[in-house]
Amino acid sequence: MPDPRVAVFLHSGDYDRVHQGAAIAAAASSAGRPVEVFFFWWALRRLVDGGLAKVDLDPDLSHRFETRGYPTAATLLQAARDTGHCRVFACSASMEMLGLRPPELEPLVDSILGWNGILARTEGVTDRFYL
What we know:
This protein has 131 residues and is an alpha/beta fold. The protein has one domain (10-130): Hypothetical Protein Ychn, Chain: A (3-Layer(aba) Sandwich), CATH 3.40.1260.10. The chain has helices spanning 15-30, 41-48, 59-68, 73-82, 92-97, 102-105, 115-122; strands at 6-10, 35-39, 86-91, 111-113, 127-130. The protein has a five-stranded parallel beta sheet with strand order 4-3-2-1-5. Helix 1 packs parallel to helix 4.
């Protein structure tokens, strides 16, 4: 039987990429699949700065999001977490390189991990998404 877990690796801070990752997490977790979302570099910066709640696309797409009531990346990620099937992690090296401290991240993530921990958590996961 295939491993039901889903791993989402968010590196880019581009809004469309973090939104897609949050949508994957929301869809998988709402189907009862265990999901782990890992934030690196510019995606981590966007998370800390509250940028998941700000639709940052070209004006036409931003307008469509607003008028059609599409959920923001923040809303999707919170919905995923609310299922109880989704956990969120920050990369410790990215945190250090961006000059962030653990107290800034602790309210936003379940844990801060280095690559050894990330690799251990995702061993055997076949549904991996890199955005």
